[in-house]
Amino acid sequence: MSSGNTDESLPLLSAPADGVPDVVDTPAGLDEAARTLAAGTGSVAVDAERASGYRYGQRAFLVQLKREGSGTILIDPEPFADLGPVDDVLRGTEWVLHASTQDLPCLSDLDMRPDALFDTEVAARFLGFERFGLAAVVGETVGVRLAKEHSAVDWSTRPLPESWLAYAALDVEVLLDVADDLDARLHAAGRAEFAQQEFEHLLDFTPTVHDEPWRRLNGLGSLKVPRQLARARELWTSRENIARDGDVAPSRILRDREIVALASARVRTADDVFRTLGTGRLTRRHARRWTDALMRADSLPEPELPRRLRSPGSGRRLDRSLVKERTDALKAGMRELSDTTGIPHDLLLQPALVRSAAALPEPGDREALAEFLVDAGARQWQRELSLPVLVDAARSVKG
């Protein structure tokens, strides 16, 4: 998971200090790994490698762990229904992850869920690091460079090459030292409590589930009429079924921009598909499936066609110029707060919450705004810092 630029003059950490361990891929090996972790002490560094862009979904194809007294452990999750034995021995242990929202969902799918965590990316952002990819944070804290040449490989490959495993092991090699350094800096900066509230909030993180995921197609906004939207929806659904059945990333079957192109083109036959997209990697069998999907969409009666979504709040009359003026004022206030504190504005408060606050009937009403922020899930530290700024900014706008 190494990412982010770092100082090329730093010494290169190209291999784990204790070498690359054998990959755990048997029940006996998993039980032994659990015993080894149980014998260790302190926090555990955790990372996972996925095959994004190659396989369907976001499941983990390698899990890396390191704990004092346990060394580094690499686990192939594919042979196992879950990694419950490992999770059991880590109950009550703090997990150290970098960019935890990337890994928590796939670890949860393996029945691995932390009771406490420390996110080194979040900590680095609280401290105002300009770059907060793992490689950059490692360089800034412990002063080494991580080898990063295998960051985009297909982790579903079996067997995994030794060089890939070394790369994966490095992601947890110094992560505990990084966390110790960042923790000391957070306390020195008076932000340890802020960070702790964020870490506790992350324990409940789950990816957003969209009611109509096909609407997240890139370029969908260029489709203006319901019939085109229906065509895009049908193509997306067909692509999703093929990808799931073949365990292939959807983008390797049909790209979003190709769905949008087909949805707006005149297509009656497989040849029309080829004329629209070109031959390239497109098979005739799939071209026929796209044609069939388009025909199904074209046969739908008008009442069953999807409609363009209205923007939030469009069902009631708003003074749009007033809301815009409020939004600009609230954003400016949060930018100033960010400059003053050194905390990124989107960490201080999610931009979507700032925009929603501007559309409240009375955003200058402190109690109403505080209630809104609580209901929206803003943490206590976020409310303490942002509430006075937002109230003052809202009251500065006449209307």
UniProtKB/TrEMBL annotation:
MF-aspect GO terms: 3'-5' exonuclease activity; nucleic acid binding; nucleotide binding; ribonuclease D activity
GO process annotations (BP): nucleobase-containing compound metabolic process
Coiled coil region boundaries: none
Organism: Brevibacterium jeotgali
Entry keyword Nucleotide-binding: no
Enzyme class of the recorded protein, top EC level: hydrolase
Presence of keyword NAD: no
Keywords, alphabetical: Hydrolase
Domain of life: Bacteria
Enzyme Commission numbers on file: 3.1.13.5
HRDC domain location: 225-304
UniProt cross-references to CDD domains, sorted A to Z: RNaseD_exo
SMART domains, per database record: 35EXOc, HRDC
PANTHER family: RIBONUCLEASE D (PTHR47649:SF1)
Protein name: Ribonuclease D
